[in-house]
Amino acid sequence: MRLLLTNDDGWDAPGLMAMRGACLRLWPEAEILVVAPAAESSQVGHRVTTTAPLRVDERGEGIFAVGGTPADCVRLALSVILPWRPDWVLSGINAGGNMGHDIPISGTVAAAREAAYHGVASAAFSHFLVRGLPLDWETAALRAALVFQELMEGTLEDGEFWNVNLPHLPPDSPAPRHRHAIPERKPLENAYHRPGSDNLWHYTGRYHERPHGPESDVAVCFGGDISVSRLRV
């Protein structure tokens, strides 16, 4: 199996490195290359760079840092960097959820979507975060890799890709279930505050209080299970 790993948190982000480690443990014979942004590129959506050069630096064996967006990373990897066509492109694990209204905003999801445009099977993995609760990236990556193992047994139609969101649970919680869910239709909270007399408005929406229906990806993830959504370009 040949895997391309990427993200939007940067090439050395703990979620990406944990995912790489989990894949190496579960599939020791797999060929795995990392092509990810040189710096954090969160919430850039599907932006690509076409009017400036893209710098590529090798940061270790099989790890490349690109001075561009997550979508840039996939485009460059498929056309220039990779010596082979990957069986899968895995994006993440992102530090923060990417559900519903997050999907078009997310650089993590954009990387998986870009792969789907090129006809490569792909999945985006994100981890909802609860402030003050410790996060074990190794456990999260193992859970994500086990979800990926299940996804490999299914089929994707042309232009389809997966979006997976892991819940943030206390350390002594039972392992979450994997549940298929539709993306939440309700928007993120539209809340802003101007603290002074200037023209500066600060976003004050609370992610964990976002509205959601009972069967959506937000409801599943916030309820303590892993949401798995089939998306299409």
Walk me through this protein's architecture.
- The chain is globular and about 55 Å long.
- It has 5 helices and 11 strands, in the order βαβββαβαβαββββαβ.
- About 25% of the residues lie in helices and about 25% in strands.
- Strand 3 (about 55-60) and strand 4 (about 65) form a beta hairpin.
- The chain has about 230 residues and is α/β, with parallel strands linked by helices.
- It has a single domain, classed as Survival protein SurE-like phosphatase/nucleotidase (Stationary-phase Survival Protein Sure Homolog, Chain: A, 3-Layer(aba) Sandwich), CATH 3.40.1210.
- The two termini are about 25 Å apart.
- The chain has helices at about 15-25, 70-80, 105-115, 135-150, 215-220; strands spanning about 1-5, 30-35, 55-60, 65, 90-95, 120-125, 160-165, 180, 190-195, 200-205, 225-230.
- The model has no long low-confidence stretch (mean pLDDT about 95).
- The strands form 2 sheets. Strands 3-4-2-1-5-6-7-11-8 form a 9-stranded mixed sheet, with helices on both faces. It has a two-stranded antiparallel ribbon with strand order 9-10.
